[in-house]
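To close the chapter, one final illustration. This time we ask the reader to focus less on the individual chains and more on the assembly as a whole: which components sit near each other, and how the overall shape emerges from the parts.
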Amino acid sequence: MSDELTPRRPEDASGSGQLDRSELALALHELAQDHETPVPVPGAEIRRRAVRRRRRRQGSLAAAGATAAGALALVLTVILTGGEDARSTPPAATYGAPTPPVTRAPSPVAPAVTVDLTRRELTVEGRILPISSGALKTPTPTGLMTVTAKYPAATVPGDSAGFNGYDMKATWVMRLRTPDDRTNYVLALTWDEKAPGNYDSTGGVIGLRSPDAMLLYKVLKPGSVVEVVGAAPATELAPTGKAKATAAEPSTATDAASPAEPRTAATRGVSGGGTGP
Amino acid sequence: MAGGMTEEEFDTFYAAAFPRLTGQLYAFTGDHGEAQDVVQEAFVRAWDRRREFLAEGAPEAWIRTVAMRLAVSRWRRARRWLELVRRNPPPEHTPGPGPERAALVGALRELPEAQRMAVVLHHLCDMSVEQVASETGAPVGTVKARLSRGRAALARLLDEADELGEREDGRVR
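The assembled structure is written out below.
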């Protein structure tokens, strides 16, 4: 098989200095065929996402500018200050210096982060961030976990933690060791940014929206302790209404349950940090 | 539903074209997750903009174009981002094609973006030189040059990989 793929001998190709065209085409076709991927989600899901996106776009044209500015402010805040400087956040634990890890070294009784699966919330340094955890079939392990590694980007195995059984390339990945010695991850749920706070869609990992995951990534170090409590709620909290709430439309946000609140808290903290000196 | 494509038609098209397109995008990106991601996103956009998508008359080509552009811009963004947050490049996590396929994937990834796109569109997606030209917005002569340089570079890279492989097989040593 390998013979078809690689030019036979240097002499063969050296006539033109190029690969034989049909040979190249054949090799490319075989390569592509070998790597065809079955559909990961049904067509209906694709259409649903398209519709949701359109609805959000129409629903929040006015809010879009503000949201974008907020996101930019967050990115800038984290880049410029290392993420620790968010003045208007209710200051639970404050670090002045950008290198706090030593003081934060784990004491098992004082987790750096608490995750409440039932409320779909993660609490870190007084901030509450929305999360999405394992779907009912693939529940997220609970208890006291230790962060064993973290990567800006990594491939998360489909069987233990990924998405519909597929390996997923993810960003802001923090690896956890569970009490029963299993492995779990906290990461940016880039492939389903609407899930955090709204529904539980993962194969067990704890997913955050990207800016939140980046923020958490700055705080957690290998050795940090994360406490996971609760269980994923059996029913989804009205996902459509929540999708709008995520788009920062205040009128519809009121009909949504809890997750609207933590979001505002986070955004407020962030923009405050961005505009501050 | 406006747009002249029923939900069933779309779902059927999606189920049929998705695997093929991920294979092609894999050849272009060399990364499974990325290929799957951009193709999926392209389908979402297709349904979101059905009218534009159908007006083109070549739905699969439309999806492929969108997916390839997404792959290019994502890659550029990711690279910039990584340069911002860390000094050293990220480890590669490309899940494994067999060794002989790896040689081709590796060689493809070495090609400059424009050459790689021309080679993939022409030799894998069976587009004519003229089609590739209009697709990439480059003159026909440029596309021909890219193809020829791309093939030459691939031949050279694969030769190197081949010799290496033989030596490791113990045939040379």
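The longest strand of chain A covers residues 143-156. Strands of chain A lie at 113-116, 121-124, 127-132, 143-156, 168-177, 183-188, 206-208, 225-229. With these observations in hand, you are ready for the problems at the end of the chapter.
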